[in-house]
Design a protein that fits this description.
301 residues, single chain, alpha+beta, Immunoglobulin-like, 2 helices
């Protein structure tokens, strides 16, 4: 069974001692009126879940987890209940801060989406299919599409755990969190920029049908509120694409034979009569051609 089919689990943000924001992305455009939620817990068995929310296809999903224990590893995954059943994202982890940990340098703040966001953020790469050993060239584009000055902007790119950063146009990389962080200049209205980075695919996670890379742009509004915009790029393992193609061939063959088996007695009788008729027509044509060839040969002799 593949995970990350219609719903992809992405990175956790705004992690404190007792709270965290978990995030996901619905990749299926037909997932309208889907009920989405997160399962989480201190073991891979999870055990707890958030309240379900109604969402639409191709959209972000997120929720806040509260009452968490400090300095504790939590497991979580995104879940969607859509038209074709339940879809579960891969299980990801985060660790809450300890009581003695210093205040984190980066607080992501509230994720603002849709027309309310003053930021256009996009992450892309050229090829959708990826395999072990491939190099992925990411492009992160950002722009202040609002009317106010956004200060202290920070672009973060969280690579999948199976991808290692090879090169980037700016920023520093944390191996532990697989995160590239790049402080950029304050963004006046209309200001924009681009960051390039390259990653190497070290392995392909087992049974993952989609792999997400997350871009986050954290900024401070004129009233001092910290907000962020999030964007994703989805890649598909080559092995999944091959299996899907094979399955389509198998399904086509199964559908053909299933159609034959679904014929009743009358259907089979009609099919046999049609085959016999084709044979008789073929023999008649062959005999007629032989007779014509004989007449032609006799005349010329």
């Amino acid at each position: 069974m593949y995970v990350n089919k219609n719903v992809v689990t992405t990175v956790a943000t705004n992690i404190t001692k007792n709270e965290a924001q978990v995030n996901g992305y619905i990749t299926n455009s037909t997932y309208y009126n889907a009920n989405t939620y997160f399962e989480y817990g201190t073991t891979v068995n999870l055990g707890s879940r958030t309240n379900a929310k109604s969402t639409i296809g191709n959209s972000n999903m997120s929720d806040y987890l509260t009452g968490l224990a400090p300095n504790t590893i939590y497991f979580y995954r995104a879940v969607g209940e859509g038209p074709d059943g339940v879809s579960k994202g891969s299980i990801e982890i985060f660790k809450t801060l300890s009581d003695v940990a210093p205040k984190p340098i980066i607080i992501q703040g509230t994720t603002v989406v849709g027309t309310a966001s003053p930021i256009m953020l996009k992450i892309s790469n050229k090829y959708e299919l990826i395999g072990e050993g491939d190099l992925i060239d990411y492009i992160v584009n950002y722009k202040n599409i609002g009317k106010q000055l956004l200060t202290h902007p920070m672009v973060q790119v969280v690579l999948p755990s199976n991808v290692t950063l090879v090169n980037s146009s700016r920023g520093t990389y944390s191996v532990d969190t697989h995160t590239l962080s790049a402080q950029v200049e304050d963004l006046k209205a209309g200001d924009e920029g681009v960051i390039f980075l390259q990653g190497r695919v070290d392995s392909i996670p087992l049974n993952n049908s989609q792999i997400a890379t997350t871009a986050i742009l954290v900024y401070t509004t004129p009233n001092g509120t910290q907000e962020n915009a999030m964007a994703y790029v989805i890649n598909v393992p080559k092995t999944v694409a091959v299996v899907a193609g094979d399955n389509n061939s198998v399904l086509g063959g199964n559908a053909f034979f299933a159609g034959l088996l679904s014929l009743g007695f009358i259907g089979w009788l009609i099919l046999i009569l049609v085959i016999l008729l084709i044979i008789l027509i073929a023999r008649s044509y062959s005999n007629r051609k032989t007779t014509q060839d004989t007449i032609t040969h006799t005349t010329t002799h």
